Amino acid sequence: MSLSPRWSEFGRANLGRIVFILAVILILVIWLVHVRLNDDGIVTGVVLTEGGEPVAGATVQIREQTLNLVKEPRAVLTDEQGRFEFTDIEMIDFLVSAKLDGVGVSERKRYHLYFMHQNFEVPEPLVLKSES
Amino acid sequence: MSKRRRHVLTHILLIVLCFLIIVPIYWVIKTSLTGENLFNYPPSLVPKDPNIFYFVDVYYWIPFLRFFMNSVIVSAIVVVSNIVFNAMAGFALGYKFPGKKIIILTYLSCMMVPFQTTIIPAFLLTKYFGLLNTHLGLALPLVSTIINIFVFKTNFDAVPSSLHDAARIDGMADWRMLFRIYLPLARPAIATNIILTFVWSWNNFIWPLIITQDTIMRTLPLGLARFLSYFEDTSGQLYAFVIMVIAPIIVVFLMNQRSFISGMMSGAVKG
């Protein structure tokens, strides 16, 4: 089956435009599929001591970096492997820190996401350092 | 001065001119990716640690998608209505009829009246039709533009009259003649209409400011003004927003530039 001469002439004259529009649509579809597969709003990570041991029971705090300064931070405790998990996170720019009385506090780390509700694994462990 | 030396000098001048035009655009793109302050010293030409997070901020800090869709809908109404109405007007002006000169003179004199002086009657008319705070109301002042009527007229004047006569002998109605014969031959005029009206509609600020009361009905230029109230003018977010506002205009222009230039040229020589 071949295209009519009119359509093939249109295709030749507008090949660049057609390729551009198709490429934009393809990129958009890939991006939307990626977003759909990774939009549970789960932020995970691990808390360690300076010696590299996982810390159980540490309080991990997540605070949105926003123009609205009155937003309350959220906090969770780490499990026996030192892992923490926040669910339903609606932030794109936030600070994460951890602390455990008697062990120490970690430095605050700032992360930025590419879209709202993005699943995110904090790339570096939060290392607790004694405050003294 | 030899021909070769003149040639070299011309090219040097053109390169300098290109550089002067490109540098500010490059600077806006660089700042949108790095957030580097405009007044950093020494200024860095190469972006350090570029990222797209400023674009993400813009998307979430204001209802960007809503403003964008409003701009797209209004521009689409403006572009389509301009092609249809201007082509019809340009086609009609190709005929000889009593009062044609007066109509053309009226059009030309209306072009000299600035929009600001007609804002109040335009607002009252829009209110009378119940179109305040609607997409159609936002598009209304630009649904037909005089300069583009003349772009169509000059293009239609270049169509051989034998084509018109043949269609008439075959019993073709005027509207079919326009849409089946004249419009397919006036691609440069259509491209000129698309680009000019899209840019005017996309950049329109004062009219949307006057007739929109709800935030959700605002267009991108109003969003930009709102954004300015949040951030100082050197922030990466602001520059990212500027890129997001002008990108569609650049895409529309690049996709139609060849026809646009030939449309402008044909209008220039056939007046």
Layout: helices, strands, pairs:
The complex is a heterodimer of chains A (132) and B (271).
Chain A: H1 5-13, H2 15-37, E1 43-49, E2 59-64, E3 74-77, E4 83-86, E5 93-100, E6 104-105, E7 109-112, E8 120-121, E9 126-128
Parallel strand pairs in A: 1-8, 1-9
Antiparallel strand pairs in A: 1-4, 2-3, 2-5, 5-6, 5-7
Chain B: H1 3-34, H2 53-61, H3 64-92, H4 100-111, H5 119-128, H6 135-139, H7 146-157, H8 161-169, H9 174-185, H10 187-203, H11 206-211, H12 220-228, H13 236-270
Helix pairs in contact in B: 1-13, 2-13, 3-7, 3-10, 7-10, 7-13, 10-13, 12-13
Characteristic terms for this protein:
heterodimer; A: 132 residues; Immunoglobulin-like; 2 domains; four-stranded mixed β-sheet; 2 helices; elongated; B: 271 residues; mainly alpha; MetI-like fold; globular
What's a quick, concise take on this entry?
The complex is a heterodimer of chains A (132) and B (271). Chain A has 132 residues and is of the alpha+beta class.
Number of strands of chain B: 0
Please give the number of β-strands of chain A: 9
Largest sheet of chain B: none
**Which topology of the largest domain in chain A does CATH recognise?**
Immunoglobulin-like
**CATH topology descriptor of the largest domain in chain B:** MetI-like fold
The general outline of chain B is: globular
Order of SSEs of chain B: HHHHHHHHHHHHH
Determine the fraction of residues in helical runs of chain B and give it as a percent range.
Answer: over 70%
- By DSSP (H or I, 4+ residues per run), the number of helices of chain B equals 13
The CA-CA distance between the termini of chain B, in Å, is 37 Å
Unreliable stretches of chain B (pLDDT < 50, length at least 5) are none
- Please tell me how large the radius of gyration of chain B is: 23 Å
Query: Can you count the helices of chain A?
Result: 2
